[in-house]
């Protein structure tokens, strides 16, 4: 028995050690798609690089990549001729105005770095459409580029202004989130319309929401969205436009029993807190930023 | 214990003795093969001397097909024409494309081009559903090269598509803007029923110029009705059918040199080596003799039928202008709406909607239908319900059309859709749907 056992022991050790375990991976220098998509650069790519990527480290993806969107949604890529008008409008209305008020360092530090463009709107199962989404303070998805028309473009109709304003609304909204995620707004803000926030906001019209002291229905979805909706609407509508919104609240009580005076006072209180937040935290004169932003929008649309 | 050790060593020896080489079935790594495949397609696409004909079959529209003429260059640019409409067929559009390794090697038309018109989720662009379009695709997996063709399958909606190398002659026809879209005039026939005559044989055809489909129907040797739907796309000289229509010895693959004659109401040209004529007819080639009763019964089961625009007469949609009636919402047909003096009657009801109120059935004439053995239905006018608006001409004209003694043929065009065609001359019809 003993020699057999020793032989077996030796054999198994030898077998274990003997064979080659090389797993040839082949040439791994050239894996397709590693490092992102590549294509021959066109003048449009160059324009985006010179205008946004080089100065502000902002990338713009206009070529189709399904994985940047909700999978399963039917969407189409943008028309190439729409990319420059949209991005230069964004530069005028959003980038230039913030830089003028707060400086380049501030903008470069906090701006979202990744814009994804879709040609069509994103249709939802309930028949509504989504015109913009954002993720993680980094990525902003803009929809309906193919319908983007400003007053200097052929075929412009007054109703096109809604699409254009919505685009700025999304960007200002998301940028607002980035700001308060870096430095929080005062807790007191959350108490202005306490108890009226609801997950049912999408069944409420802006008109009804305003009677309770919210600037839009979406603002009712939570404190943070309330805060950034205020920033966004005040910037895109301008000071005069915001006054119109406040003054449009009719007499009488809302469904929730808010009186006209209360609703208006709440919106004014929110306005004051936003202005104060920009002043103390970011050293930005909000009203000056507002008039610059609105002036650029007016230039594009009216 | 010793014995266990022995067995253990034996097992170790047995398992470790096997060959551990990882012998790949392929002689190259997946990445290398992927790169080779992409390069192979890229070369094939760029190197086709006369460009490509691309056919796309949107998955949302059965049998539908659209054609494109494309040229790809090696800088990710593609130029194309499309037969989507008259404008896209003559305006060259440049956009971008790229080949990408997704789950399979894939061809992406990655900025908006004519291909995307079929996919656009805005239904007003292509007549499709909102949120879906025609359920077509612009991202295709490359399924293989077969001879002069590249087979494609849509990645989102599974639309089929393929590209065929164009010939020099085809390229010249496309670049010199030679086009023949005369087939579109099929929509200008005054009669509902149209027949194509090819080498002595007649087929009834129904074309949908938006969906790019043609339905052929005929009576076979046994006297039973046959029906086949095929897609069509425009070529520089006319239209091509995809797949070709075949009935025994007769095959129609394309209609070329098509010309429209408004006066004689005919479309003429060549189908292969023989000539063809499409002309209008007052009655169907094969009458669906139970259609009228089915229509009436289905209307009863679902309570009523809806017509949004009333009668189409002599080429005029809503010829009696029912949509101009105050607060008009739709016109409906209620079989067995009520009884009068013990006998039931049907109602042609007008539904109105005022302001933000609920729509309401407001007024309308009552009829008695009679079903003929030859498949026709006639209507007898009984009287009126409700109060008519001051301007009654639309209602009066509709009534007088409906009581035409020649009656109507019913043609089923969908599970919940019928066309009711005047048997007098085939030039008046109304669509009932739910």
Strand content of chain B: 35-45%
User: Major β-sheet of chain B, in short?
Assistant: 9 strands, antiparallel
Helix content, binned percent of chain B: 10-25%
Query: Which fold name fills CATH's third level, the topology of the largest domain in chain A?
Result: Collagenase (Catalytic Domain)
Mean pLDDT of chain B: 92
What features would you describe in this structure?
The complex is a heterodimer of chains A (302) and B (434). In chain A, 51% of the residues lie in helices and 6% in strands. With 302 residues, chain A is an alpha/beta fold. Chain A folds into two domains: 39-156, Collagenase (Catalytic Domain); 183-302, Collagenase (Catalytic Domain), CATH 3.40.390.70. Chain A has a four-stranded mixed sheet. A two-stranded antiparallel sheet of chain A has the order 3-4. In chain A, strand 3 and strand 4 form a beta hairpin. Chain B has 434 residues and is an alpha+beta fold. Chain B contains seven helices and 26 strands. Chain B has helices at residues 2-16, 30-47, 114-117, 123-126, 168-175, 291-301, 393-402, and strands at residues 52-57, 66-72, 77-82, 93-96, 98-101, 105-108, 139-146, 149-154, 160-165, 193-198, 201-208, 213-219, 225-235, 238-247, 250-261, 266-271, 274-281, 305-307, 312-313, 328-340, 343-352, 360-371, 377-385, 408-414, 417-422, 428-433. The model of chain B has no long low-confidence stretch (mean pLDDT 92). The chains are: A alpha/beta (302), B alpha+beta (434). The interface between A and B is large, with 49 and 51 residues.
Feature tags:
heterodimer, A: 302 residues, alpha/beta, Collagenase (Catalytic Domain), 2 domains, 9 helices, 6 strands, extended, B: 434 residues, Lipocalin, 8-stranded antiparallel β-barrel, 7 helices, globular
Itemize the secondary structure elements and their pairings.
The complex is a heterodimer of chains A (302) and B (434).
Chain A: H1 2-18, H2 43-56, E1 59-61, H3 80-102, H4 104-110, E2 114-117, E3 122-123, E4 129-130, E5 132-135, E6 139-142, H5 160-182, H6 206-211, H7 223-247, H8 260-282, H9 286-301
Parallel strand pairs in A: 1-2, 2-6
Antiparallel strand pairs in A: 3-4, 5-6
Chain B: H1 2-16, H2 30-47, E1 52-57, E2 66-72, E3 77-82, E4 93-96, E5 98-101, E6 105-108, H3 114-117, H4 123-126, E7 139-146, E8 149-154, E9 160-165, H5 168-175, E10 193-198, E11 201-208, E12 213-219, E13 225-235, E14 238-247, E15 250-261, E16 266-271, E17 274-281, H6 291-301, E18 305-307, E19 312-313, E20 328-340, E21 343-352, E22 360-371, E23 377-385, H7 393-402, E24 408-414, E25 417-422, E26 428-433
Antiparallel strand pairs in B: 1-2, 1-9, 2-3, 3-4, 5-6, 6-7, 7-8, 8-9, 10-11, 10-17, 11-12, 12-13, 13-14, 14-15, 15-16, 16-17, 18-20, 19-26, 20-21, 21-22, 22-23, 24-25, 25-26
